[in-house]
Amino acid sequence: MSHSGRNRRTVRLSRALGVPLTPKAARYFEVRPYPPGEHGRARRRTESEYALGLRQKQLLRAQYGIREAQMRRVFDEARRSPGRTGDVLVELLEMRLDAIVLRAGLARTIAQARQLVVHRHILVDGVRVDRPSFRVKPGQVVSVHPKSAQTTPFQVAAAGAHRDVLPQLPKYLDVALPELRVTLTRRPAREEVPITCDVQKVVEHYAR
User: Fold this and answer.
1) What does the H/E/C string look like for 76-113?
2) How many other CB atoms sit within 10 Å of the CB of residue 129?
3) Is the pLDDT score of 137 beyond 90?
4) What is the mean pLDDT of the chain?
5) Helices 199-206 and 68-80 meet at what angle, rounded to 10?
6) DSSP label of 146
7) Quick check: 88 pLDDT over 80?
8) CA nearest to 207, candidates 89, 30, 31
9) Is the pTM of this model over 0.85?
C-alpha cells in the first residue's frame, strides 16, 4: 500500500473509532469528526454491550498498531498477572519498544516507530533490536544507532520536531532527546499512559 493510501486508511479508521490516530488524521478529524460513509454525520444508534466492547478493543489496538493475535496474547498474560487486568494490559502494551520510541519523540506515529525498529535503527542497552513487540524492562536504555543518528529523520527528532504533536512526556520515561536516548525508569501506571480507551470494556469483551 502506498504512503498516501495508508494515510487515507488511517484517517478513515480514526473517524470510525472517534479518535485521531495520527497528527494528519487529527487535522482531518477537526474538519470531519463524524464517522465515514454517507450516513456518518447522522449516525446515532444505540450500540450493544458487545459492540461497545468491540469498538474499545479496536481503539486500543489501533493506538498501538497491533494485530488481534498480539492483543490476545498480551491480554492473556495480563489476566494471569497480579493486579487489575485492564491496568496490567495497558502497562504491558506501553512497555513495547515501538511505544517507547513514539512516547520519547523519536517518531511521530506508532507506524513510524515500528518501522524504525524493524529497520534496525534502534538499540536497547547498546544492542540492536528489530522486534517492535520487544518488552523494555525498567532501567533499560533505548537509543539510536550512531550511524542512524546522523541521518535527517533522526536529526529532526533530536531537534524536538515531533514533541508538538505528541502527548505530554510520561513520567516513567527519562528522555535526552538531543542525544536520542530514553530510559524506562519504572513500570508505567495506567493513569499515566496517554491513550484513549475504556479498558474495562476491553476486558469484558475478551472475558465473554
Assistant:
1) HHHHHCCCCHHHHHHHHHHCEHHHHHHHHCCCCCHHHH
2) 15
3) yes
4) 87
5) 90
6) H
7) yes
8) 89
9) no
